[in-house]
Amino acid sequence: MNSQKLQWGWVLVLAVTCGFWWEATEPIFAQSEQVVEVTIKDFKFVTKQGVLRLGFPTVIKVKNEAAERHDFGSTMFEGLPTQIEKDGVIVYGRGLGGVFLDPKRDAAIRFNMSRPGRHEFRCSIHPNMTGELLLLSAEAV
Ligand SMILES: [Cu+2]
Fold first, then answer.
1. Model confidence over 75-126: pLDDT tens digits?
2. Co-location of 59 and 125 in the same domain
């Protein structure tokens, strides 16, 4: 009985240690990513982006602030290894085309920006909802 208590004690120590580690390393991960924030509001995409560079890990944080269900879809990550995180679930794939968002929900799309130019995204539910990201080529930076 005593040893079982000890075991749980170690589990607790491990959990706390991992928690600290995660807190400490998360900002480092975050800094190495270029972040694009896309907010969905009033049937529009509102995009906040800095200078995006090719070949860098990128995260697109999509937030649906509307009362309707929307979709963020794009060909910009088509064929690329992409990670989509939504509701605590992470999906990996190469054929991911986007993410559906229920009202007041958000999602994070992670991939390596590897094609220059303008990249359009749209809502498949409301086809007149569009937006775009501009990617500079490495030479232009
Ligand atoms: Cu929509």
1. 999 899 999 999 999 999 999 999 999 999 999 999 998 888 999 999 999 9
2. yes
- Pairwise CA distance, residues 93 & 79, whole Å: 9
pTM (predicted TM-score): 0.75
Number of domains in the chain: 2
Cα 2 to ligand 1 centroid, rounded to whole Å:
58
Ligand 1: centre distance to CA 40 (Å): 8
Whether residues 66 and 79 fall in one domain: yes
* Pairwise CA distance, residues 108 & 52, whole Å: 17
Shared domain check, 70 and 104: yes
Which residue segment(s) compose the domain that 61 sits in? Answer: 33-140
For residue 95 the two structure tokens come to 């054929």
* Whether residue 57 sits in one domain with residue 115: yes
What is the rounded distance in angstroms from the CA atom of residue 62 to the CA atom of residue 99? 9
**CA–centroid distance, residue 123 to ligand 1 (Å):** 5
Q: How far is the CA of 137 from the centre of ligand 1 (A)?
A: 30
Cα 22 to middle of ligand 1, angstroms: 35
